[in-house]
Specification:
This protein is of the alpha+beta class and about 475 residues long. Helix content is about 60%, strand content about 15%. The chain is built from ten helices and nine strands. It has a five-stranded mixed beta sheet with strand order 5-6-7-9-8. A four-stranded antiparallel beta sheet has the order 2-1-4-3, covered by helices on one side. The structure holds adenosine-5'-diphosphate and magnesium ion (MG).
Length: about 475
């Protein structure tokens, strides 16, 4: 699957964004630095000009005032006011009255005298000087120097700086985008190829002709794909071989289970027909001998009775063997009766364990293979419980809801840790028997939690395996 990268996380975007941010910061610093240099230079120059000019004006005014020549004083000031940076000149006498005022911004209220041109707020640097003649105070001169020149220079420098910065940023973005595009396009090829490999297409190869880092990576990628491809093929071959072996093994187990079942049936019949007949004959002959020797020979009679006892015992043993090999009740009375019989016989042998059998649903016509499978599973479970479980209660339940047939055998015994390797063939045999008729076999157990066995057969699946 191909993941589309979001804009913010894309390499291309991050590359451009970081370059542009660095550019903006550096250029802003540069512009700010330029402006502050201009400001300092202009301020210094203005302060020097202002203080030397006002000094000179104060001196000249002093001499006119001593001579009381106010006409020449006015003339002088109207010349001076033409100086382009000067916005006003006001002369006041000793008592603070205005003697004369020149310039556009001659303020009614006296301005506060500024100490530093850069700290002015109204755009005019106000400065004052006492007028003294021979040490005697005559009055005061107040002048204002306009800062518009400096502001013009600063504005111009700012505009120029921003223009240069913009051009530089645009050029950088273009260059970065071009390099970035080329770079990320090739990275994109790498990522696409990786996605292809992920989807199982090992035929992808990347071009390696550019002789740079990306090409080296691409070459390494190609080698890796070849390696992965050959290993995957090898693994697949091995896997299919093991799958085949496993299938054959299971087939073998299924067949041997069937053969075993067939053989048991055959032997049971043989025992019944042959040995059973012989034992009956021996029994009959022994009885005859006993009756005939009853009044004649006590010794012969005792021997005949002994033969009858032994043959009767052999008959019981043969009968029990026959039952284990193939319970005739299964064939004669069906699964339910056979299971009840098995549970009763087991309970009689194990009175310390309460064993119950419950059943519900349609269980009469399950077919011989299913019947024998269910019977053998119950038989093996009961054997295991008597051998390993040490339980107080066993519940065997068989239910058919029309869709699924479920056999469960639950005991409350010591249980077993299923993660450990269990020896024995009982559990494996049950699983294989279940599998052979298309059933599903489950074991649940833990130490002290008993063992819970569940065999489910879907009725559709059952029909297929029905003989
Ligand atoms: N009902 C049970 N309760 C506790 N442990 C069990 C039970 N059934 C089986 N086991 C454990 O599982 C092992 C494997 O069982 P099985 O395959 O039938 O082999 P076997 O009965 O020949 O030992 C047993 O050895 C025993 O440890
Ligand atoms: Mg067993």
């Amino acid at each position: 699957m191909y993941r589309s990268t979001s804009l913010l996380r894309s390499l291309r975007f991050r590359l451009i964004a970081s370059v542009v941010s660095i550019e903006v910061i550096m250029l802003s610093l540069l512009v700010w630095n330029n402006i502050s240099i201009i400001q300092t230079t202009h301020t210094d120059r203005l302060r020097d000009t202002a203080s030397s000019m006002i000094q000179q004006i104060a001196n000249t005014l002093g001499s006119y005032m001593v001579a009381v020549d106010y006409a020449s004083l006015d003339d002088y000031l109207s010349n001076i006011i033409n100086y382009k940076e000067l916005s006003y000149i006001v002369v006041i006498d000793r008592d603070g009255n205005t003697v004369t005022a020149h310039g556009k911004a001659s303020p009614k209220a006296r301005p506060t005298i500024d100490s530093h041109p850069a700290q002015v707020t109204d755009g005019v640097f106000d400065i004052a000087e006492d007028i003294k003649v021979a040490g005697q105070p005559m009055g005061r001169v107040l002048t204002g120097f306009s800062l518009s020149n400096m502001e013009d220079a600063i504005n111009k420098s700012r505009t120029r700086g921003i223009t240069i910065a913009s051009i530089e940023i645009i050029l950088t973005v273009v260059a970065t985008v071009l390099i970035g595009l080329g770079f990320t396009r090739r990275l994109g090829m790498l990522s696409n190829a990786a996605t292809q490999v992920e989807m199982g297409n090992y035929s992808v190869t990347l071009p390696t002709d550019t002789n740079d880092e990306v090409a080296t990576t691409a070459a390494a990628f190609n080698r890796m794909v070849t390696e992965v491809s050959s290993r995957t093929r090898q693994l697949e071959q091995e896997e299919s071989r093991s799958r085949k072996l496993l299938a054959e093994n299971r087939q073998l187990i299924h067949t041997s289970l069937e053969v075993q079942e067939e053989e048991r049936k055959h032997m049971a019949r043989e025992l019944h027909d042959e040995l059973g007949q012989c034992l009956t004959a021996i029994q009959a002959d022994a009885e005859l001998i006993r009756d005939l020797s009853h009044d004649t020979d006590k010794k012969i009679e005792t021997s005949a009775v002994a033969i009858m006892d032994v043959s009767s015992h052999v008959y019981d043993v043969v009968h029990s063997m026959m039952h284990r090999l193939r319970p005739s009740i299964l064939d004669n009375l069906g699964l339910i009766e056979a299971l009840k019989d098995e549970v009763d016989a087991w309970s009689a042998r194990h009175p310390e364990t309460r064993c119950t059998f419950e059943q519900s649903g349609e269980l009469l016509d399950l077919g011989e293979r299913t019947n024998i499978t269910l019977y053998r599973v119950v038989q093996e479970c009961l054997t295991n419980i008597s051998k390993h479980a040490n339980s107080n209660e066993v519940i065997i339940a068989l239910h058919n809801d029309g869709r699924v047939l479920t056999l469960s055998i639950d005991d409350d015994g010591v249980g077993v840790d299923l993660d450990t390797r269990l020896s024995g063939l009982g559990l494996i045999g049950m699983r294989e028997r279940a599998d052979a008729i298309g059933g599903h076999f489950e074991i649940n157990s833990a130490p002290d939690k008993g063992m819970h066995i569940r065999l489910t057969i879907e009725q559709m699946a059952k029909t297929e395996h029905h003989e």
